[in-house]
Design brief:
With 309 residues, the chain is an alpha/beta fold. It is built from ten helices and eight strands. Strands 7-5-6-4-1-2-3-8 form an eight-stranded mixed sheet, with helices on both faces. Helix 5 runs parallel beside helix 8 and helix 9 packs antiparallel against helix 10. The protein binds uridine-5'-diphosphate and magnesium ion.
């Protein structure tokens, strides 16, 4: 029987982390295999680490990695996968939105289907704002139109992965990680598991709108070059419009069917419109250049300050 590590990224989760541990422990104790809980403390400043140290002192199957500062959710999960030494891993949020009680069902699904990945699809999500629900629903579908690989929709990082995936994941050197995308990209046999997502037990979301935007932009720009094609398309369209207008005005002058002098409005519209297109396309280019800049520096994705067990 493969042993299993449950990877739990935590950032300022002091309000829930003890309860999360309790529910995970209860579920894992029922499994007939070696289990380990790996908490990755992403630079919390609210006492999360103190609570985790206390837990790890009495439960030797609990490991804790503490980052030197906040590096972000995806870096925390990445560290968890890098440090996992078992044949299976489950990635789960610390706030109990993803119920630990379905872990045995994920294992059963894996055995039944012989899958390398069992990803959890949200049938419903309670306790989240309408805006967040709508934007994330639209976003996953938008991303699928643009990217070269198909991603399952309505899916977070909550999933079971096996050693094949863990091994392949270690080979990904990119610093901007969109983990659910990378795992889909890797391939092998991946099957869905449908569940009801609960509301956060306590504490607040660590993904305000600003962070959601940056997460979405990593997903988009790391998994698609189509925005560059859109820029090219806009350029072509502008050239075509320019050509038609040039001919129209040239022959208008020659044959006298366009009145001269007037035209302030049309010039203003053209200047603003084409100026806008230029800035937009430069912005798109800038996004990719920014990513190149970040990636060529080859900085570490995270820095571990302390480990327990
Ligand atoms: N998280 C993290 N580092 C961060 C932000 C979040 O490790 O910088 C963890 C957080 O503790 C939680 C998970 O990532 O376990 C998901 O975050 P959250 O529940 O706040 O996001 P939401 O479910 O609201 O999208
Ligand atoms: Mg959450």
């Amino acid at each position: 029987m493969d042993s299993i590590t449950v990877i739990v990224p935590c950032y300022n989760e002091a309000a829930v982390i003890a309860a999360t541990y309790g529910r995970l422990r209860a579920v894992l104790d029922l499994l007939d295999r070696r289990t380990c809980i790996l908490f990755v403390d992403d630079g919390s400043i609210d006492g999360t680490f103190g609570i985790l140290s206390g837990i790890a002192e009495v439960d030797s199957s609990v490991r804790v990695l503490r980052f030197s500062r906040n590096f972000g959710h995806q870096a925390a999960v990445t560290a968890g996968i890098h440090h996992c030494d078992t044949g299976l891993a489950v990635i789960i949020d610390a706030d109990l939105q993803d119920p630990p009680e379905i872990i045995p069902e994920l294992l059963a699904t894996r055995d039944l289907e012989g899958a390398n990945v069992v990803y959890c699809v949200r049938k419903s999500r309670s306790g989240e704002g309408r805006f967040k629900l709508w934007t994330s629903k639209r976003f996953y579908r938008f991303l699928n139109c643009l990217s070269e690989v198909r991603f399952p929709v309505d899916t977070g990082d909550f999933r079971l992965i096996d050693s094949r995936i863990i091994e392949e994941f270690r080979r990904f050197k990119e610093r901007g990680k969109y983990i659910r995308g990378i795992i889909s990209w890797v391939g092998f046999k991946q099957v869905p598991f449908y569940y009801e997502r609960e509301s956060r037990l306590a504490g607040e979301t660590k993904y305000p709108f600003r962070r959601m935007l940056s997460f979405a932009s990593t997903a988009l720009f790391y998994f698609s070059k189509k925005p560059l094609l859109v820029a090219v398309g806009l350029g072509f369209a502008a050239v075509l419009i320019g050509l038609v207008l040039a001919l129209w005005y040239f022959f208008g002058k020659v044959f006298g069917y366009t009145g001269a002098a007037s035209g302030w409005t049309s010039i203003m519209i053209a200047v603003i419109f084409f100026g806008g297109i230029q800035l937009l396309t430069i912005g798109v280019l800038g996004q990719y250049i920014g990513i190149l800049f970040d990636e060529v520096k080859e900085r570490p994705e995270y820095i571990v300050e302390r480990t327990i067990n």
